[in-house]
């Protein structure tokens, strides 16, 4: 495991655990959603590392029907791959990890971060529970429309979603 990956895992775990449990029991129910930049400006290596890190981070949580539910989407010019927010049974968790690792990316130009955040908000409204809601946006920050991205992040925060942004690759300014 590279030093970059170790540092990334450590920081992601610390951020998510601090927000999710606020110093309480790690089994506290929460809905956790990853918004992953899969645009052409993110390298294949960084995209693959991100997916592998997410699998490792999620192993530290009690992802299950009664505890932590997880969802994710991958975006570029549009949202083109998604795992709907849910809490798999322990026996189904291996399939969930496989699905997370299989998320695909695009080689097309364009980064519509706002569309991914908007879809995340929709998933929280449709599949979310009355628990702590956390969204982790993993991006290089090259949003095609920073005004709309900022607006979608604001709407998510107003709906009670704690927004966390993590930069990958050659990071630019991130608006969440």
Q: Key terms for this structure?
A:
single chain, 176 residues, alpha/beta, Rossmann fold, five-stranded mixed β-sheet, 5 helices, 22% strand, VWF_A, ECM_Assembly_Org, vWFA_dom_sf, signal
Explained architecture:
This protein has 176 residues and is of the alpha/beta class. The chain has a single domain (31-167), classed as 3-Layer(aba) Sandwich (Rossmann fold), CATH 3.40.50.410. Helices cover 40% and strands 22% of the residues. The chain has five helices and five strands; from the N terminus they run αβαββααβαβ. The protein has a five-stranded mixed sheet, sandwiched between helices. It is globular, with a radius of gyration of 15 Å. The two termini are 29 Å apart. Keywords: Signal. Residues 1-23 form the signal peptide. This is VWFA domain-containing protein. It holds the Pfam family VWA. Residues 31-176 form the VWFA domain.
Sheet with the most strands: spatial strand order: 3-2-1-4-5
User: CATH H-level name... which superfamily?
Assistant: von Willebrand factor, type A domain
Q: What is the fold-level CATH name, i.e. the topology? A: Rossmann fold
C-alpha geometry:
globular
Along the chain, the helix and strand elements come as: HEHEEHHEHE
Share of β-strand residues:
15-25%
Count of extended strands: 5
CATH class identity = Alpha Beta
CATH architecture: 3-Layer(aba) Sandwich
Q: What would the average pLDDT be, to the nearest integer?
A: 82
